[in-house]
Amino acid sequence: MGDVLAGIHATWEFEPDCVIIRFTRGTRGTPKLFQALGERRIPLEALESVALSPGKRSTVVLHAVPRPGADPLMDAAAGQLKEGCDPYRLVLPAERETLAEYYADELRAALPVEDGGPVMSYLVPSVAAPLQFKAYDGKATFDGGKVSFRWFWTGASSAKWKAGDQTFAVSDLVGVEWRSPDVLDGYLRLLPRTGSSRAQADQDPAAVVFGLGYGPVHESLPFAAAVLEAIRGTSPALAPAPSSAEMPARGPSDPAAVAERIRHLGELHSAGLVTDEEFRAKKAELLAEL
Fold first, then answer.
1. Ranges of H-type helices in the chain
2. Residue 16 near residue 2, CB atoms below 8 Å
3. Which residue pairs from 133-136 have beta carbons closer than 8 angstroms and sit at least 24 positions apart in sequence?
4. Are strands 146-151 and 166-169 parallel, antiparallel or unpaired?
5. Which residues does residue 188 pair with via DSSP β-bridges, in sequence order?
6. Where are the beta strands (DSSP E) in 118-230?
7. What pLDDT sits at residue 119?
8. Burial class of residue 209 (count of CB atoms within 10 Å of its CB; 0-12, 13-18, 19+)
9. Averaged in consecutive runs of 10 residues, what is the pLDDT profile of the chain (290 residues)?
10. Which of 159, 112, 111 is nearest to 261 (CA)?
11. I need a surface site. Which of 79, 219, 271, 281 has the fewest CB within 10 A?
12. How far apart are CA 62 and CA 47, in angstroms?
């Protein structure tokens, strides 16, 4: 067993070839994502750099930065995680700064000296299947070999009902697109090798959309990461997700679907998760789709 550095929400154990991160369970203020991850073994070859910086409220932060392509969780997150939910940040009381600086130096010295660029295979395992979560318009399940979407009559658009429940074999996918439920229009979209319409998520049978209490980060992100890891296992050369500039222009939307999205927006507004200005702007944007 190596040296151990205990932080506020996690403990890092330093081994000769890896860092074992154990997240605190049941402690007030610990992000649910950390509790869902439980424990992660991070090989040193998966790390690009290490930094130590001042934190908030008399704390310091030891931050290990993973190499691109080394961790499916961070690939799926695509920079959308809030700072406090970054599993590579260890927050410590300020009085432990000297100790944290020692471990930061030791960790830097132990990192491989070769080029720390992107890697072609994942080095950090994701949460193991089977996995499932409830989105706003359906239930998503993953058994390790296929992803299934079962639509809810209370939330799914008419386009999804018309297409019916969906099942996608991992071997037929090239990627996953996750948009955080912490912002409006969050969703999980699967990217098939062929036949992807690139419609907006609430109309796309290859996507589930998130809502208030549906598809939270600690459920939907590990799910997306597990699917991404499985895809990489069947096809090492993953196709990047198309950017917004590459997506086709949207046509007119189904009025019933727009009305449902406005209703959901109203729920967010009533819950105080959307400001008056954001509500008015988003409502106008939705109405413009008709």
1. 32-37, 72-77, 97-110, 158-163, 217-234, 255-270, 276-288
2. yes
3. 133/215, 133/216, 133/219, 133/220, 133/223, 134/214, 134/215, 135/187, 135/188, 135/208, 135/209, 135/210, 135/211, 135/214, 135/215, 135/220, 136/208, 136/209, 136/210, 136/211, 136/214, 136/215, 136/264
4. antiparallel
5. 178, 208
6. 131-134, 138-142, 146-151, 166-169, 173-179, 187-192, 207-209
7. 81
8. buried
9. 87 96 83 94 96 94 95 96 96 95 95 73 94 97 98 94 96 96 89 80 95 93 98 67 41 62 71 69 71
10. 159
11. 79
12. 13
SS3 52: strand
Q: Please tell me the distance from the alpha carbon of residue 4 to that of residue 103, in angstroms, as a whole number.
A: 10
45 in Cβ contact with 112 (< 8 Å): yes
What span, in angstroms and rounded, lies between the C-alpha atoms of 74 and 281?
31
Other residues' Cβ atoms within 10 Å of the Cβ of residue 246: 9
Write out the two tokens for 256.
């019933």
User: Which residue do the tokens 């950390």 mark?
Assistant: 34
Helix (H, G, I), strand (E, B) or coil at 177: strand
Q: How far apart are CA 19 and CA 43, in angstroms?
A: 6
In this prediction, residue 249 carries a pLDDT of 42
The answer to whether the CB of 92 falls within 8 A of the CB of 8 is yes
CA nearest to 231, candidates 168, 288, 156, 167 = 168
Q: Say what the pLDDT of residue 164 is.
A: 97
CA distance 185 to 84: 22
Q: Tell me the backbone φ, ψ of residue 126, rounded to 5 degrees.
A: -90, -175
First to last CA, the chain: 62
Element (H, E) at 183: none
